[in-house]
Design goal:
single chain, about 70 residues, alpha+beta, three-stranded mixed β-sheet, 3 strands
Length: about 70
């Protein structure tokens, strides 16, 4: 019997501070006993008070991440 109650895919940016984006979504998945998978759309340099830089992930890489998940 699986320890997970389901699967969720988060399509979001990555927050280096850990309080938002993919990192926060994965924390929520863990709390709900849901297996979390991710598609990262942006990388941010941020902390609890400011976002200092953002790099967008190219569309072809976002698509490649989604294709990899859907084909599994």
């Amino acid at each position: 019997m699986s320890v997970y109650r389901g699967i969720a895919v988060s399509i979001a940016g990555s927050d280096s501070g850990g309080g938002a984006g993919i990192q926060a979504d994965l924390k929520t998945c863990a709390a709900l006993k849901v297996f979390g998978m991710t598609v990262i759309t942006a990388l941010t340099a941020q902390n609890s008070t400011a976002v200092t830089d953002v790099w967008n992930v190219p569309a072809n890489m976002v698509r490649a991440q989604m294709d990899a998940l859907w084909s599994d």
